[in-house]
Design goal:
This protein is an alpha/beta fold. It has a domain of 193 residues: NAD(P)-binding Rossmann-like Domain (Rossmann fold), CATH 3.40.50.
Length: 322
């Protein structure tokens, strides 16, 4: 049974995953394209999606309860993608917990029941990082709110515009060697288009309400293997120097002190101490009708010398996505 939601608010719609979700919502087959509302504090961040038919970009601060209450008016579903990877404990709580409290209250006041939340693998009350603990608490907030909730927990997400494999490829293009914290950490990378499909499929399936899905690709890799592949596919594979845990945290501290958003933080290192792979105790992408694409089928194309939107479209077509 399929239930198409026709008016969808996408929080975080201008981000890496959000852009693909918006594309899928406005191009759903069978004449079921949605009217999509995407709030953003910086309108230029929406430049890549504002051309989409039936999509509305709204200047707004989602952390402001009054503005959030206005945003949920008139929609029949919400996709919640707002997340941060770096910051203080307070910053993680603001993005992953306090925002969800405000969202739950706004949805209740507006009579909006349906919500899809993107969380993360490795969550749990005893999780080792502020990122994972705050994601855990955010899930609990939404479950306690009486919403028609679906939770997706992806592993690290890759794609043409990712800030994971692309970062390691770029670093190896300029560095003679790669000092690597958490080199033995395990991941099960999942393609951004598969995550976007999972979000939209879950939104459309009433049987996903109350369910939690683990979103992973078919292969498991150590961080060392992923860095090596990123270097190889971009033509800049470098020698790696695995760092002991204490030295890795020191390296991350140095990165935190550099200008701009850090490539690695101590909280990231802490997160990597638990496997970022499917537990096997929860349904996966297959339960949402998706056969996940292999890393090797997608990443070599966008990490190579050719770049741009046209190539991304060819990758999607070649993987049978519409």
């Amino acid at each position: 049974m399929t239930q198409h939601h026709t008016r969808v608010l996408v929080l975080g719609g201008t981000g890496f995953v959000g852009r693909s979700v918006c594309e899928r919502l406005v191009t759903r087959s069978g004449g079921a394209s949605a009217l999509v509302r995407v709030p953003t504090r910086r309108e230029q961040h929406a430049n890549s999606i504002r051309h989409l038919p039936t999509l509305q970009v709204v200047p707004a601060d989602v952390h402001d309860p009054a503005q959030l209450a206005t945003l949920v008016q008139g929609v029949d579903a919400v996709v919640q993608l707002v997340a941060i990877l770096h910051g203080s404990a307070d910053a993680f709580r603001r993005a992953h917990v306090e925002l969800l409290h405000k969202l739950a209250q706004a949805c209740k006041a507006a009579g909006v029941k349906r919500l899809v939340q993107v969380s993360a693998l490795g969550v749990g009350p005893q999780a080792p990082s502020n990122y994972l603990r705050s994601k855990t608490e955010g899930e609990a907030v939404l479950r306690a709110a009486g919403l028609d909730l679906t939770v997706l927990r992806p592993s690290v997400i890759f794609g043409a515009e990712d800030r994971f494999l692309n970062v390691f490829a770029k670093l190896q293009s300029v560095a003679p060697v790669m000092p690597l914290a958490g080199s033995a950490a395990r991941f099960q990378p999942v393609w951004v288009e598969d995550v976007a499909s999972a979000i939209v499929n879950a939104l459309d399936r009433p049987d996903s309400i109350g369910q939690t899905y683990e979103c992973t690709g078919p292969g498991t890799y150590t961080l060392s293997q992923l860095v090596r592949l990123a270097g190889r596919w971009s033509g800049h594979e470098r020698w790696q120097i695995p760092l002991p845990a204490a030295v890795g945290r020191l390296q991350a501290l140095v990165m935190e002190c550099l200008p701009g958003e850090p490539l690695m933080s101590r909280d990231n290192v802490d997160s990597m101490s638990v496997p970022n792979v499917a537990t096997g105790t929860l349904p996966g992408l297959e339960a949402l009708g998706i056969t996940p694409a292999a890393l090797e089928a997608i990443a070599p194309g966008y990490l190579g010398s050719e770049h741009g939107r046209a190539k991304l479209e060819r990758l999607r077509a070649g993987a049978g996505r519409d």
